[in-house]
Amino acid sequence: MDVSAQLEAQKSKFKSINVEKQVSLQFDLGLLASFDTNALEENKLKTETDNYLKSYTRDGTQLLINEIFQLPLTSVQDVGVVVELPKIVTAIPREKPLPKPKPPTRWERFAKLKGIKKNKKSKLIYDEEKGEWVPRWGYKGANDDGSNEWLVPVPDNADPFEDQFTKLREAKKERISKNEARRRRNMDEAETGETQKLENKSKAGAKALKKTELHQQISVAKTSTASLGKFDKPIKGEPSNTKGVKRKFEPNIGDIQKEKEARLNILNKIIDKKGEVLNVRKAIAKNHQEN
Amino acid sequence: MRPLTEDETKVFFEKLTKYIGKNVLHLVDRSDETYYFRLHNEKVYYVSDSMLRQAVSIGRDQLASLGVCFGKFTKSKKFKLHITALDYLAQYAKYKLWIKPNGEGSFLYGNHVLKAHIGRITEDTPEHQGVIIFSMSDIPLGFGVTARSTVEIRKLKPTDIVAFHQADIGEYLREQDTLF
Fold first, then answer.
1. Boundaries of each PUA domain copy (chain B) (predicted)?
2. Which of A28, A89, A143, B150 gives 20 to 30 Å between its CA and that of A268?
């Protein structure tokens, strides 16, 4: 029996899985989407809108399904043939705006100003006494103050009747409350926008600080040679080094004339600066008298 | 003891000119004998040439005072005139204020000058001007700074302050330890 004719008849009932497109489509299989950039045929769109759009959509879907079937298939019991979709390629805009950056704490601001960088430390450290790895802090941590031990040594110069256990416990309580107060302050400042103000202020201050630090460094570097910088060429804009310069005063009994002149000079400058303010009332009165 | 530096001289003269204006010239440039301003223990002294020459032979620790003390530099390098400078200030004063006998006592205890106490005042005294305060018999009593100008004083009530107290001769008794 020849089934090829029957097969052919069956096949002709369905549309072909091969679709011709001028520009090949783009797929994002993770989203099960295909993107068609081909131009629509305007005539067909106007005359037989529904049919045209249906067939157009079918073609796109067919191509998408073709693409899916090219992915590696796996068969799962009771479910059938399954395909694992790749990751989503298309970037989708996020629904909510980006979260605002957390306002920095006082310590973070200070660390930034001073250029202190956080370096990560391991959580466990080796305790040589115990011979085992213990957490750096916390329960049974390495920085335990020893108040939970059965014995606490009394320091040399301490009052022998003082309870060292309570002392340690109280110290810890104080540390905790202090830390808590700082945390509160940071929260308050973040809420009231005080942090932003302080940060803007410290930004201006940081520049000035950098400058003074630089000046200090220059003056140290300049005097770090064997000749204490005596023969070094001056740098442009170098800060004047006032360190180690002795105060010098004029002699008690010196040139009389010179001293007098210097004083008169200063006096004249002061008088010139002030100037004689014209007294309007007086001037008018005088003018009247003269006339 | 040492001469004043340029900055110190400037601060000092600026203060003096508030009270005697240009007449500071007469203190610096005298016809009779050369006089100097000298700094000792942060106080400024007005010393004649002959006295200065004698004083240089006395050690810094031993020298208590010399000449006429005009005032002192505060820790923040401002200058404060002492009552001991009154003789010179009164001599060259530009603006004067006379107070009646009933106000003398009050002023000499360090109070401000009220309108009720004024006997006379130099015409056209501006506001915030250093003035020398005299008794009605022309005895200098101290100095101060006007709170109001002469024109405005006329409108004031009798209990209003006319001049702020700066120094008075009562300080010779009250502050004799630190004055000279």
1. 95-170
2. B150
Among candidate residues B81, B115, B136, the one where a domain is terminated: B81
- The partner residue sitting opposite A260, judged by closest CB among B21, B28, B38, is B28
Residues B77 and B101 in one domain: no
* Interface pTM, i.e. ipTM: 0.82
The answer to whether residues B121 and B59 belong to one domain is: no
Query: Exposed (0-12), middle (13-18) or buried (19+): which is B66, by Cβ within 10 Å?
Result: buried
Size of interface A-B (CB pairs under 8 A): 55
- B10 → closest Cβ in A254, A266, A277: A266
Does B86 map to a domain? no
In a domain? residue A250: no
The pLDDT value given to residue A92: 86
B22 vs A264: CB contact, 8 Å cut-off? no
Residue A130 lies in a domain: no
Min distance A272 CA to chain B CA atoms (Å): 10
- The pLDDT tens digits for A70-120 are 999 888 888 888 999 999 988 888 899 999 888 889 899 889 888 899 999
- How many domains does the structure of chain B reveal? 2
Say whether residue A210 is in contact with chain B using an 8 A CB cutoff. Answer: no
Place A133 in a pLDDT band, splitting at 50, 70 and 90.
very high
Min CA distance, A287 vs chain B (Å)? Answer: 16
> Are A263 and B37 within 8 A, CB to CB?
yes
pLDDT at B71: 93
Q: Which of residues 110-169 of B touch A (CB under 8 A)?
A: 123-124, 126
Residues B28, A282: C-beta atoms closer than 8 Å: no
Assess if residue B52 is contained within a domain: yes
User: How many other β-carbons are positioned within 10 Å of the β-carbon of residue B50?
Assistant: 10
Single out the residue in B81, B102, B128 at which a domain terminates. Answer: B81
Instruction: Tell which phi-psi region holds residue A238, choosing left (phi > 0), alpha (psi between -120 and 50) or beta.
Output: beta
Burial letters for A202-226: b for 16+ Cβ neighbours within 10 Å, e otherwise? eeeebeeeeeeeeeeeebeebeeee
Identify the domain containing residue B154 by its residue range. Answer: 91-174
Q: Residue type for A287, please?
A: N
Nearest chain A alpha carbon to B5: A249
Find the angle CA(A29)-CA(A31)-CA(A34) to the nearest 5 degrees: 60
pLDDT of residue A242: 65
